[in-house]
Amino acid sequence: MKDFTHYSLLDHNTFGIDVTCRRFVEFEKASEVTPFVCSLSEEDKPLLMIGAGSNLLLTGDFEGTVLHSAIKGVESTTEDGHVLLRCGSGETWDDIVSFCVDHGWYGLENLSHIPGEVGASAIQNIGAYGAEVKNAIWNVEAVDMETGVMVNIDQKDCGYGYRDSRFKHEWKNKYFITAVTYRLSENFTPVVDYGNIRQRLEELGITKPSAQQLREVVIGIRDSKLPDPKIEGNAGSFFVNPVVSREKFLQIQKDYPDMPHYPVDERHEKIPAGWLIEQCGWKGKTLGRAGVHDKQALVLVNKGGATGDEILRLCEKVKADVLERFGIEISSEVNII
Length: 337
Known about the structure:
Blueprint: E1 2-8, E2 20-27, H1 33-39, E3 47-50, E4 56-57, E5 62-69, E6 74-79, E7 82-88, H2 93-103, H3 118-124, E8 127-128, E9 131-132, E10 137-144, E11 150-154, E12 175-185, H4 197-203, H5 211-225, E13 233-237, E14 243-245, H6 246-255, E15 262-265, E16 268-270, H7 273-279, E17 286-287, E18 290-292, E19 299-302, H8 308-326, E20 335-336
Parallel strand pairs: 2-5, 3-5, 4-20
Antiparallel strand pairs: 1-2, 6-7, 7-12, 8-9, 10-11, 10-12, 13-19, 14-16, 15-16, 17-18, 18-19
């Protein structure tokens, strides 16, 4: 276990915000978490649990303790044509996806190249190109931060929704995730009718993609749309695509007949937040040292030396303009501290 005071978080957030925390603790084993919890005092609070910082906006120094998992390890068992893959929460997410594709275990390939760590996948219910990780999660292992007791939480109890879970609400800071087990299939069924995956496969002359080919296409599409945080600080998709009533959707569609949309159910439609933001003229625009990415309006970027407050001001301005023009309130996917 690593334990530092007055620690810089510059390398722990992909926005590249240079702030500090009063204390930083990193666990290498799940067994280290319980004794730490039992030793906590009021001086150590508040607590902030982070992964790779790829879904985090820090608006100032954190006057508390930041907790990070460096818990590694991958174990697999097979049952009835499926594989249960238990992963330490500190494993890099895309390494796990690559590992699964290499071993012929399927269900995560459309989630390729999403930044972050395994623990965060269970909190955020990460999703992309027609896939959500909730459909692969079997259970979540964690330590109760009040009692230090290790618990095993079934997927059905996590309250998963679109980019959402109980870990983001009533369970926020209640559990420190130590491992996640995914249930994967040994039979590959490609999901290609989202985004421009099928179009890209057709351009490559691929009619029946392998999992590796599908993974490579997803990576290529993401790389073409999203900036490299090592060059231009960002946290990927900053906003959640809003789900609106069908009545609201039809009202907007009268003025924007070509508006992209995705049916959720008989009464709701999902509208891409990036499209809404682009219609408001924000794509490629800046506000001080913060900006909206010129290839994907869903992404806010640090143009160089921006503070968290500057990026937050841009966020609020974009949200206000979308609300004024469309009557839709878009929310932030990024955790703002």
